[in-house]
Amino acid sequence: MRILLVLFVFLLMSCNQQDVVVPAEGEAAKPVLGDTFIEASIGEPSNLLPVLSSDSASSAINGLVYSGLVRYDKKLVLEGELAEFWEISEDNLTITFHLRKGVVWHDGAPFTSADVMFTYQMYIDPEVPTSYAEDFLQIAKAEALDDYTFRVTYEQPYAPALESWGTSIHPKHLLTGQDVTKSPLSRAPIGTGPFKFIKWDAGEKVVLEANLDYFEGRPYINRIVYRVIPDASTQFLELQSGGLDFMSLTPIQYATQTDTPAFKRNFNKFSYLAFGYTYLGYNLQKPIFQDKKVRQAISYAIDKQELIDGVLLGLGQAATGPYKPDTWVYNAKVKRYDYAPEKARQLLDEAGWVDHDDDGIRDKDGQPFAFTIVTNQGNDLRTKSAEIIQRRLKEVGIEVKIRVVEWATFLKEFIFPGNFDVTILGWTGGPEPDQYNIWHSSKTAPRELNFVKFQNAEVDELLEQGRRTFDQAERKQIYDRFQEILAEEQPYTFLYVGEALPAVAKRFRGIEPAPSGIKHNFIKWYVPASEQKYAR
Amino acid sequence: MLTYLLKRLAMMIPLLIGITLISFVVIHLAPGEPTDMQTDLNPKASAEMRNRLMERYDLDKPLYVQYGKWLGRLVRLDFGESFAQDHRPVMDKIAERLPITIIINVLSILVILLVAVPIGILSAVKRNSPFDRGTTIFVFIGFAMPSFWLALLLMDYFGVRLGLFPIAGLKDIGHEYYSWPGQIWDYVRHMILPVFVSAFGGLAGFSRYMRSNMLEVIRQDYILTARAKGLSERTVIYKHALRNALLPLITILGLSVPGLIGGSVIFETIFAIPGMGKLFYDGVMMRDYPLIMGILVIGAALTLVGNLLADISYAMADPRIRKG
Known about the structure:
- The complex is a heterodimer.
- Chain A is α+β, with helices and mostly antiparallel strands.
- Helix content of chain A is 29%, strand content 21%.
- In chain A, a hairpin with a 5-residue loop joins strand 2 and strand 3.
- Chain B has a single domain (90-323), classed as MetI-like (MetI-like fold).
- In chain B, helix 1 (2-29) packs antiparallel against helix 14 (289-317) and helix 11 (233-255) packs antiparallel against helix 14 (289-317).
- Helices cover 74% and strands 0% of the residues of chain B.
- Chains A and B meet through helix 1, strand 10, helix 6 and helix 13 of A and helix 2, helix 3, helix 7, helix 8 and helix 12 of B.
């Protein structure tokens, strides 16, 4: 019995190595190698071949394992990754990429233009079930001029083209002549990126290790572990107990639950505007929303600051259009709809919506002004926003009901058949300003993204022009006008842009917040030797 | 006995086909398709590519054709390929999740039996005593308390504050580098909270059932006879009463066989345990038909087998049924 007890204590000690490290201030800033970075993901990655996956867990891992020809730098300007530099022809139809020499795949094979060519052919192959063919179908001709030169020619000038070459390049020598969906690479990827895939424990974790041959030099951190933790509360507890080094906090966690001395001692918190905004979209085919004044009135009646304070706990900004406020394309001079209930009432009166029968609800031709806001289940921020909006609209004499529906049903039964009055949804964007798929009048068919059925000849023309123009100053003019029209027309009431709120364990140094976030220089993050926590 | 068994087994086949047919129709009635996840509201996906996906998965064919194809594969014990983006065989996906679910469920049933049976017996023997009342309150608190809430409280207390147990997952990050007893201890530490939480909720059912069985038996004439013979109270309760009171538990255990593979979504989500419940839930949310059907078929088959096992073992344990 005594032997057993001793063994027990020994085991307890040998496994309890999750000591809390207290970082010392002002330590010498010389990067050193080592340590492990542990991050959590809500869902399990679906597929580690980028061509087949579209979920965020897979993308996060694929982004580190693979590289594209180009990528966004910390200021959101495209820079070369696998391409050293590129040339765009006078007529904007041809892009010639000059590839980096001496890059090797994680299995040691050399990277050449044949891999780029293969990737292009795979994306447009009808047999490959990818959701990303669209950008590549615009290409008229692709040629590998030599091992390190790759040229694509487009049917028409296509401004999003360059960005689309940020797509992960796949290894030809491992995938050629196979059914891509059956490739072992989907569970054990081989790329050219800064981290190599080591292993995947199904439902549990994915482990990556620093690629010692990475063409920009090896990352300082030795390992990354992605743990699958499906519950956000559990993730937060894991973070606090030291089981995670990184997590994107919710507004309530950021604002109130991480204000403890223990948390501040062990973590750095960051906040910056995220790409993406939440909106209230009107079904423009419904007669009541066809009058611009009605839409403007609703926009005036909603207090956006109240939404930001109430829903995001102040961690966000009012949205005025589809672009993020700190990007080059954002137009700060568009018409704003700050909270002004008087203006709202006046506009509604002008539109003929008056409370004739004195029941507190405006009416017109015997019809009360009532509608339903429909949104998807599982997004607490949207549901709360709907409730606040409901109360504000009641004050100007509009009756609102709220309906929350499971995602698949929500799209299939409400959004795509046009079977809704108003919806609260969000779009996530990126630095590329092309919004053709969301606002062009040709994109109103069932399942297409202009489901509010916004139709405006000038916007159509601007969007077409914007896609064909490469010069940023010219594009700025085009998209400025586009934002003016949207602000005037209010097909959506643009509500708010939320903030990304990451927390990172304090032992990680070298983090530089930038317009693109904090992960842009991830390979330069390091942990001082005295604070390293994991030996392997 | 053998013919009875064969007859029962043969009867299971049409039953199983009926279950699969109904399940197949019902899940296809739910709005949404497996392709939606990849294509809906995705600015980079075109209508043409959606059709390509539909064709690939046979979703453009009438339902009876789809069912026929599925059944054809099932006969060859092929559950097909998942519609999820990993395109893996359904069998593989189930096989990697099954062991952990079974282990946790078996452990939790063992804990329930070890705790609930004695509680049930003692409450019956000392009916209406403070012990009876106290345990009744205790087991009903377990029954009524939301498991996710209890789990979070325990994780916060034992995991974050005391640092005693790991919070989630099945093993430490450095698990591979531990010695083998270290690895086993690592597993045990990770299992304590999940098994406790999952067993706590199940105590009420078993202990109350045990209690009422026992009360029933104690009132029987043969117990009176045993007491009249002058046997000690101990012998009366543990030899004569207990054996008979345990019999109906066999039925309950048989009925919990299908439960062994069914995980709980909430529970698995909270503890980050990759089990069957989460797999099934994600499958439903993505409308991954082959995966849903695969799990349903296994569940249905186990339910039928469990019933059969319960009947057989009951017959073996109780001579009245065997001979009657």
